[in-house]
Amino acid sequence: MTSRLTRRQRRRVWQAIQYAVFVAVLVLVVVLADWDRLANQFAQPDLAARLFPDIITIALRNTVVYTFSGFLFGLVLGLVVAMMRLSSVTPYRWVAGVYIELFRGLPALLIFIFVGVAVPLAFPGAEIPGGIYGKVALGLGLVAAAYMAETIRAGIQAVPKGQMEAARSLGFSHARAMASVIIPQAFRIVIPPLTNELVLLFKDSSLVLFLGVTLEQRELTKFGRDLASETANSTPILVAGLCYLLVTVPLSFVVRRLEARADKAT
Amino acid sequence: MPQQTPPADATPADATPAGRPEIEIRDLHKSFGDNHVLRGIDLDVAPGEVVCVIGPSGSGKSTLLRCVNLLEEPSRGTVHVGGTELTDPDVDIDAVRRRIGMVFQQFNLFPHVDVTGNLTLPQRRVLGRDKARAAEVARENLDRVGLADKAGAFPAQLSGGQQQRVAIARALSMGPEVMLFDEPTSALDPELVGEVLSVMRLLAGEGMTMMVVTHEMSFAREVADRVVFMDGGVIVEQGPAAQVITRPAHERTRNFLDRILDPAAVEPPVGEDPGPTRQPEG
Ligand SMILES: Nc1ncnc2c1ncn2[C@@H]1O[C@H](COP(=O)(O)OP(=O)(O)O)[C@@H](O)[C@H]1O
Ligand SMILES: [Mg+2]
């Protein structure tokens, strides 16, 4: 019977089915969910109000600090790994390749536990500089570097070959040409994907709670969880979630703008 | 040259002894895998001489030029520039390359810095000149190519002809003894070719030693002291421009010239618009 329908008719039928499924799911959620209990558990205005200003001045602030320290460490390490990946020295390429596969293949949580437990064991007495901030930068940075290395490598390879040749013909050494000509151009190419990585790190910073933090060192997730158990109500979790979105949604918007601009430029 | 900065390892007194060629190429071979591209090139370029290299696409002209500043490593043979043997494994190639300017078909300006930055970045990073001195040299050379007013522009804001002139000024800012040009006008719209050739004519007039790969026969005839015709990785014939272009001795040269001087006879190779090369009779 469907074979009798024209293509246009078939498309209409298919669209109607999609709308029907959408409406059905919406109705089910609205009807079946216990909205009173949800509101009671997650949206207590007076409880939410009590979270301020600490959730901003301590929790959100720490989240931002953790994210940036991890991002900076990851960026430097990622650049080094990318250069090793592109090196003409085979063992460097090999080490970089193993590093990338290893740290992209492991859950970030495992790496945090590793940083929290194995590093102090392996180097007894040696404190990671910066205390908790150093540990977070290390944990987040180790993960981020693996992704950033691949991004940066692709960015470097996207710079036209003529740029290196022009620089070499002017007397730049390979290293100097990389530093003053190739990498600055590669970074423009990789700003959108690196900003994306920043968004991912912002969320991954929640793993800090596995490192053991003091009250003053709590970030959004730990803060939300702690207050939720103190008050036996989940409103703090919801507010913490909104705080994440406050940062991630505008950042994602910026990424899309940067990508659109990069597309236009090429 | 307004600024000559001989690198520390060069002894200017005997760099180019009287009578010694500025560029000396002996038995040069270059293979890419099985592809034997240069098959024994011998070529001298005297100080102040302008040599134009012509020949069909794929004959090895670019490879030859790139061997002269070691962007390609020769498979066999020697190359001397200004008395320094480039092919010596112990040579400081970065120091030698400072003395050899290269201009590419695709300009290869640095897009992330403005015109002044393109000229000052290499001077500062490679020659260690301070900012003020580098800017001064940049101004002089932009003036020379007639683009003083574009100092603050970015490469993407310039026409192809302007970009190529900036590229020439950038090379000149390093104070080279030799300039290599690899089809400098082939990527340009026909109406922009003239401005680049004028700059090159000016340089030739100032006594710069130049090796120019080009399809611009009128330029070769007017400016070149010598024209070298290459085909299949060898030099087929060479001599004064008038002789090679108007009275070629070899069949292969004649065929090539027939094709290039009469664009209607054959489709021009991609990216090589021979428009303005058409010669009036005589
Ligand atoms: N980097 C390279 N790798 C492999 N083959 C190359 C490379 N550069 C040039 N060739 C080959 O060498 C030959 C000569 O090229 P080229 O010197 O660019 O010729 P021309 O400049 O006269 O057109 C061509 O067959 C080309 O494919
Ligand atoms: Mg070529």
TrEMBL record, chain A:
Pfam annotation, one family: BPD_transp_1
Its membrane topology: Multi-pass membrane protein
Keywords: Amino-acid transport, Cell membrane, Membrane, Transmembrane, Transmembrane helix, Transport
InterPro entries referenced in this protein's UniProt entry, alphabetically: AA_ABC_transptr_permease_3TM, ArtM/GltK/GlnP/TcyL/YhdX-like, MetI-like, MetI-like_sf
GO molecular function, one term: transmembrane transporter activity
Record localization: Cell membrane
Keyword Membrane annotated: yes
Residue stretches spanning the membrane: 12-33, 64-84, 105-126, 237-255
BP terms from Gene Ontology: amino acid transport
CC annotations in GO: ATP-binding cassette (ABC) transporter complex
The UniProt record lists the keyword Transmembrane helix: yes
Family listed: Belongs to the binding-protein-dependent transport system permease family. HisMQ subfamily.
NCBIfam families for this protein: HEQRo_perm_3TM (TIGR01726)
Stated name of the protein: Putative glutamine ABC transporter permease protein GlnM
Species lineage: Bacteria, Bacillati, Actinomycetota, Actinomycetes, Kitasatosporales
Gene designation: glnM3
From TrEMBL, chain B:
Location of this chain's protein in the cell: Cell membrane
Residue ranges of every copy of the ABC transporter domain listed in the record: 23-257
Gene Ontology MF annotations: ATP binding; ATP hydrolysis activity; ATPase-coupled polar amino acid-transporter activity
Keyword Ubl conjugation recorded: no
Main location: membrane
Catalytic activity: a polar amino acid(out) + ATP + H2O = a polar amino acid(in) + ADP + phosphate + H(+)
Assigned EC number: 7.4.2.1
InterPro entries: AAA+_ATPase, ABC_ATPase_HisP-typ, ABC_transporter-like_ATP-bd, ABC_transporter-like_CS, MetN_ABC_transporter-like, P-loop_NTPase
Membrane topology: Peripheral membrane protein
Superkingdom assignment: Bacteria
Keyword terms of this UniProt record: Amino-acid transport, ATP-binding, Cell membrane, Hydrolase, Membrane, Nucleotide-binding, Transport
Pfam families assigned: ABC_tran
Gene Ontology cellular component annotations, sorted alphabetically: plasma membrane
Recorded family membership: Belongs to the ABC transporter superfamily.
Name recorded for this polypeptide: ABC-type polar-amino-acid transporter
Taxonomic placement: Bacteria, Bacillati, Actinomycetota, Actinomycetes, Kitasatosporales
